[in-house]
Amino acid sequence: MNLKNSNIKFIKRKYLNIRYANQSNSQKLDIYLPNKGSGPFPVIVLIHGGKFSEGDKRNINGSVILEGILRGYAVISINYRLTKEDIFPSQIYDVKAAIRYIKSNSKKYSLDKNKVIAWGKGAGGYLCSLLATSSKIKELDNLKMGNSIENCDIQGVINWSGSMDFLTMDSQLKESNLHPQIHSNESSPESILIGEKITKAMDLVKICSPITYISDNTPPFFIQHGKYDNKIPYQQSIQLRNELLKYKKGNSIYFEILENATDEIDDFVTKENLNKVFVFLDNILKNSICQN
């Protein structure tokens, strides 16, 4: 159930197609506020997937947005430049610019700029993770895009099935006997993202990896991955978890391989699973494990 096909008429307070930067028509976001309360509301920023080449801020499963606002969160869904328009690092530039815009306009929209979570799946999970780990990395930011007085720190990440290390994906799929094993091809989403075949640009691949920037300041992570995901292998999430554990306490990481799941969103948006996510978020935003 994508948002554009779901019934959101009962969401009384929403602000659509807000421009957060001026370099591209893609740089827009939608804000959905709870029907009740004056705020400031904790914020969930949704980053859509789509292999970096497709997708849209309305191409988000409606269950996530509706569950968020019913639980008292402001939910903000963002667009960013896709690879048919520009290559890396434009995508992470856009995500960080959106975060700074949200913080700069927090009073206008009744948002709590000190309680911001990023949530995404696939390419969205990758961008959420890179946002979280590289918030202080100047080379992966463009302050000229606006609201430079604000930082792009966030308080936590919900990473569903995000890629972490482009160079290990095919070998991991082979290990699991899953096909197709095409990530090392020059036409793969990852090669198109960086503008070069990944096996010929290993230094750039390292720059792109969220794992590269994990530190003591990295915020809490909620990580889930389908064991039978044949697009992004579940071992990518194991790599992320293992690297986080070098710096983070165990209670700041939730990690789960969904044993019977693939890459299908329906495996992730069950009522039971969404409840797991929001228990984690509630703990973060009550500052029990928040690092920022």
Automatic annotation (TrEMBL):
Give GO terms: molecular function aspect only. Answer: hydrolase activity
InterPro entries, per the entry: AB_hydrolase_fold, BD-FAE-like_dom, GDXG_lipolytic_enzyme
Keyword annotations:
Hydrolase
User: Which regions span the lipid bilayer?
Assistant: none
Which domain of life does the UniProt lineage start with? Bacteria
Tell me the ranges covered by the BD-FAE-like domain, including all copies. 29-244
> Which Pfam families does this chain map to?
BD-FAE
What is the official name of this protein in its record?
A: Alpha/beta hydrolase
Tell me which species this is from.
Answer: Romboutsia maritimum
Source organism lineage? Answer: Bacteria, Bacillati, Bacillota, Clostridia, Peptostreptococcales
